[in-house]
Inverse folding.
């Protein structure tokens, strides 16, 4: 099972540490994370195996991903290098992806040959990162950049599904693109914000949450949501996405709770 999450707070809270710890325990056959602490220390860790990670106190921002491999070098899970999140060349953009793409190989070659991108792996997800970097360099971190990213994927006949989280680690700007399984969570007792592929783990904590509809993009900065817009889907995808713990794909219908967000000052 693949799970991914992006978390923010104004200052370190027990909620952030608890949430990070619980997600770490959800790891599958590979795990990776990036985190920034209140003292300005940054950590990036990847592992191909189900091993225990040392948690860091004082976390203000994190991006993490528990992955089930779908492409790339299968043997040994690439030694961990193929685990998420992926970094671009100047290490400003981080990207995590749940899903599986087809037909991305030609686009990968074009990004290398024409635009001189450097890939750390052969995983389909890393193509999404470097392609978005092209749009980001032109438009910045906004919906227009994500629209261009999606348009180029479709123009190059890349098909499949893609739940995506992307973070600029310098500016703390981010976007999430949903194909049916992006959940936004806000603990009621704090200023934390979590953008995740599902609502595990919640525990007994009280959360305000809404599910981002398939084909929607959400853009934010730190723990604030700046805009939400429908931009469409990757070609040939039905707009329903999910994964069953029993080992098979299942439909997961999603809906968006719209105006309720205004209560928390997101608009």
């Amino acid at each position: 099972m693949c799970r991914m999450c992006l978390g923010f707070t104004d200052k370190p809270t027990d909620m952030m540490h608890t949430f990070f710890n619980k997600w770490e325990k959800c790891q599958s056959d590979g795990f990776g994370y990036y985190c920034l602490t209140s003292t300005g220390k940054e950590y990036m860790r990847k592992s191909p195996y189900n091993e225990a990670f040392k948690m860091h106190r004082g976390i203000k921002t994190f991006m993490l991903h528990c992955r089930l491999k779908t492409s790339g070098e299968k043997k040994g899970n690439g030694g961990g290098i193929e685990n998420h999140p992926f970094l671009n060349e100047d290490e400003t953009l981080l990207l995590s992806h749940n899903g599986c793409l087809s037909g991305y190989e030609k686009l990968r070659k074009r990004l290398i040959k024409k635009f001189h991108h450097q890939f750390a792996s052969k995983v389909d997800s890393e193509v999404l990162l470097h392609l978005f970097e092209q749009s980001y360099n032109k438009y910045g971190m906004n919906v227009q950049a994500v629209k261009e990213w999606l348009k180029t994927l479709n123009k190059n006949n890349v098909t499949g599904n893609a739940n995506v989280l992307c973070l600029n680690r310098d500016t703390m700007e981010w976007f999430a693109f949903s194909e049916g399984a992006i959940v936004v969570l806000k603990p009621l007792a704090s200023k934390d914000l979590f953008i995740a592929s599902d609502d595990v783990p919640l525990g007994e904590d009280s959360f305000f949450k809404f599910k981002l509809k398939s084909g929607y993009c959400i853009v934010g900065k730190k723990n604030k949501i700046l805009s939400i817009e429908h931009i469409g889907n990757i070609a040939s995808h039905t707009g329903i996405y999910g994964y069953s713990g029993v080992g098979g794909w299942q439909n997961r219908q999603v809906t968006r709770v719209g105006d309720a967000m205004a209560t928390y000052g997101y608009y």
About this structure: Confidence is low (pLDDT under 50) at residues 237-267. The radius of gyration is 17 Å. The longest helix spans residues 124-139. The domain at 3-264 is CATH 3.60.20.10 (Glutamine Phosphoribosylpyrophosphate, subunit 1, domain 1).
